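Example S7 (structure tokens).
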């Protein structure tokens, strides 16, 4: 009998029903990887389900998959922090509520060495079966298995960093040398180039709309007035059709993305957009272009297309944005902790209004652009602080 089957055999001896409970972990790094046969969620499911059927025959029992995690997400460390289903599984494992975990390869859990080791050690502590489909049972008491896990973990993480460096260097070289954009999502006033990937052409009709949005903002320095102007004119956000994609083996047709009225968030994004200015920048983290860095370590580059609006108008808008930014800091001194975070039931974001010069803290509120909602600043912040203190004091998760 395979040494990996012994713990499972012992578990079955103490049960009325011959059942074992497993968790399955499946991951692909992106939608594109999920669409190819060799790396898709569908194929991983097939390999794992086939393995489980063979294991049922060997043990003469029923294996119940009580938790199946299927994710299309990057395996890097910062992405792992947001994989809530994976963290729920870890909690489940710590409660000794499983008999085993199964995955195709170690890097399908994540490319974060620390998290992978924590998960495997938790499984080992509770004597779960740890099964890697392309290798079989993993026994952390076995020195050879430990070395193999550590090496595979190291290679997975190193591959991630090496790939990240290689991709970033290539995309930054393409930006600086050719004005090419790796994130090819057009904005209002620009359309994707009809034949060349990563380039744009100016949409003359929409260019006029962008100019008519920039001009009143440069004159009025008011988000509210410009939004009202856009509403009167009937201006809409940029819309586009998504691409065909495959999700869990099913073909998903294109759909319309974007569109709708100009909102404050969209206006904020539009007024600062690099593509409209046709000048971008990136942080030179790999020190590719040390001679071209500015004081903050950034390298500027030009897009292949011309600016959507005139440089003179852009300069006027930038001056207004800088002035508003200074006034916001001077007026509020960054004390509106919930500004842009509070949201009403109908999805309206609330922002802080009223400065420190207001007597006795009166007339300080969180409100939206139409002034339809108004919440006293001190009352709502006191309530939120009270709730956070209670959570930090009594939350099992934090403890």
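Recovered sequence:
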């Amino acid at each position: 009998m395979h040494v990996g089957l012994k713990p499972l055999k012992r578990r079955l001896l103490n049960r009325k029903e011959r059942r074992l409970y497993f968790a399955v972990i499946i991951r692909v790094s992106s939608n594109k990887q999920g669409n190819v046969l060799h790396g898709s969620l569908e194929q991983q499911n097939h390999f794992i389900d086939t393995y489980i059927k063979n294991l049922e025959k060997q043990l003469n029992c029923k294996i119940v998959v009580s938790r199946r995690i299927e994710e299309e997400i990057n395996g890097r460390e910062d992405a792992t922090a947001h994989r809530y289903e994976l963290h729920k599984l870890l909690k489940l494992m710590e409660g000794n509520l499983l008999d085993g975990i199964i995955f195709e390869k170690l890097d399908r859990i994540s490319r974060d060495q620390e998290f992978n080791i924590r998960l495997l050690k938790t499984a080992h502590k509770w004597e779960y079966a740890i099964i890697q489909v392309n290798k079989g049972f993993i026994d952390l008491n076995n020195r050879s298995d430990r070395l193999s896990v550590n090496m595979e973990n190291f290679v997975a993480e190193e591959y991630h960093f090496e790939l990240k460096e290689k991709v970033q260097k290539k995309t930054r070289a393409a930006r600086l040398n050719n004005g090419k954009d790796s994130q090819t999502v057009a904005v209002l006033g620009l359309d994707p180039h009809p034949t060349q990937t990563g380039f744009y052409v100016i949409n003359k009709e929409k260019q006029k709309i962008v100019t008519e949005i920039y001009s009143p903002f440069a004159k009025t320095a008011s988000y509210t007035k410009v939004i009202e102007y856009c509403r009167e004119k009937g201006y809409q956000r940029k819309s586009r059709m998504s691409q065909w994609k495959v999700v869990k083996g099913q073909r998903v047709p294109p759909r319309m993305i974007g569109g709708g009225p100009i909102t404050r968030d969209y206006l904020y994004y539009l007024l600062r957009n690099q593509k409209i200015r046709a000048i971008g920048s990136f942080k030179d983290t790999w020190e590719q272009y040390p001679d071209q860095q500015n004081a903050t370590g950034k390298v500027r580059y030009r897009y292949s297309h011309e600016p959507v609006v005139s440089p003179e108008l852009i300069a006027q808008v930038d001056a207004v944005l800088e002035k508003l930014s200074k006034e916001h800091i001077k007026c509020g001194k960054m004390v509106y902790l919930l500004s842009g975070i509070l949201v009403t039931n109908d999805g309206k974001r609330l922002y802080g209004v009223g400065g420190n010069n207001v007597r006795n803290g009166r007339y300080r509120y969180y409100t939206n652009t139409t002034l339809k909602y108004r919440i006293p600043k001190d009352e709502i912040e006191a309530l939120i602080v009270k709730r956070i203190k209670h959570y930090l004091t009594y939350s099992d998760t934090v403890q």
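Notes on this example. Residues 33-38 have pLDDT under 50 and may be disordered.
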